[in-house]
Amino acid sequence: MLKASRVRVQASSRGQAPRRLTGASWRPFLLAAGLIMAASQVSAQDAETPAKGNGGELAKQAAIATGVGAKVLCSSLFISGRDKEDVIANDIVPLWPPAGLVAYEVDADNHAVTARFGSTARTATYRTGIGCTVDVPADEGTALAQPVSETTPPVEPGKALSAAFDAAMEDPSGDLRTRALVVIQDGKIVGERYADGFDPSMPLLGWSMSKSVTAALAGLVVGDGLMALDEPLGAPEWEGDEGRSAITLQDLLQMSSGLEFVEEYTAGNDSVGMLFLEPDMAAYAASKPLIETPGTHWSYSSGSTNIVARALTSALGGSEATQAYLRERLFGPAGMKNVTFEQDNAGTPVGSSYIYATPRDWARFGLLFLNGGKAGEEQILSPEWVDFVHTPAPANELGIYGAGFWLNGMAEDGDGRFLQGLPEDAYFAMGHNGQIVGIFPSQDTVIVRLGWTTGDAKFDTNGHFSEILNALTE
């Protein structure tokens, strides 16, 4: 039997209190309720086949809702060690309101969560080292070594930094949910702050910050001569297709593959369907048609990164070899002690979205890039690769994206900056719900913010990170 590293299924006093729904916030929830209630009359088998007519579409909505709920709850319980009701109220419902209507069954002995609505049920199962996967039996896959937990208490910030942290943690609307702040300067943590129920040892989801980790993995694989950056990547779905066969690893990392992909978090779009319905995410993305010449048009795509993740996994010899490579060549040397890179049903690490790491580990990841690819005296990534990931992608006219990292734009008297209060040389790993690792070479600083910001709320990265940087000079 696998042993979960942090399980508090029965805890009730930790975490953020459930947020009361206002009249405005109920409206999308009620619309979703009608949709899911109708979907309950459609069989789960229908949800696995192409939607035909209204019944097939409703079954798809039910499959998404149960998939979101099972996956998020499983990972939050068995990776992060959080409370079930806290996760449902403060993560699942704000992220995907229909999933709040789902019934959840937690099997602590087998480390599984089943989400059920009507005849639709989906189960996510936790496996040590590779996290939770939907619709994969518990006895499939390889269990890896247990992560190492953080034991050092939070580093108390100085007075000025503490005031900046206070401002960044404020949440008058209840929608920001900032959960962790970590600041590294001159190679050491100079201050941390955690919301109630969160601490330095709790792995948290990075969402699209996973793309930056995938870019780092690509740098190692290219450096080892196992793949080439500027040669056609190749994919089974592209055989005999001259246009798609021209797509390179560089095109995919720089979000300029030319493949069709809709990156919106609504039920009918590619990103949600890929993450919560597709057993082989890379195959789904690679099967998309080519709509632009590779390398000429920039379009943000989680599908592109999952194609990269599959290619890297193949080059490294499969899932188990890839997980071992990550720990031996990246996570271990960088000092990232507790990282889970979750896989899809095909055994491919979900490079676009599914990495859990502690706030300190996310900060250590940023420090690796701040130090030009070095951790201590060890050169993990080449300086050339570090330069590559934060050089503007040729197809991105605004200069705000490199390869797996967001940039601060090409400034012209300050007007071209993505975040005008922050230095021009800043670059970022960024993820859904306001996850961010800010790397500031000119200030020798890394700032991490992790949270679960939903609805119309936006974490003011420009304002709060500016205040933090200013506080470090006082």
Fold and architecture overview:
The protein has a six-stranded antiparallel β-sheet with strand order 6-5-15-14-13-12, sandwiched between helices. It has a four-stranded antiparallel β-sheet with strand order 1-2-3-4. Strands 7-9-8 form a three-stranded antiparallel β-sheet. The chain is built from 14 helices and 15 strands. The N and C termini lie far apart (53 Å). Strand 3 and strand 4 form a beta hairpin. With 474 residues, it is of the alpha+beta class. It has helices spanning 23-39, 44-47, 53-78, 84-95, 159-169, 209-223, 249-253, 270-277, 281-286, 302-316, 319-334, 359-370, 383-389, 461-471, and strands at 103-107, 112-117, 120-127, 131-134, 178-185, 188-194, 204-205, 339-341, 355-357, 374-375, 378-379, 406-407, 427-431, 435-440, 445-451. The protein has two domains: 23-134, no CATH class; 204-471, Beta-lactamase, CATH 3.40.710.
Overall residue-averaged pLDDT value? 88
Overall CATH architecture of the largest domain: 3-Layer(aba) Sandwich
What is the number of independent domains? 2
Provide a count of the helices: 14
End-to-end separation:
53 Å
SSE order: HHHHEEEEHEEEHHHHHHEEHEEHEEEEH
CATH superfamily of the largest domain: DD-peptidase/beta-lactamase superfamily
Q: Specify Rg, calculated over alpha carbons.
A: 21 Å
Largest sheet: 6 strands, antiparallel
As residue ranges, the low-confidence spans are 1-52
What's the helical proportion of residues?
Answer: 25-40%
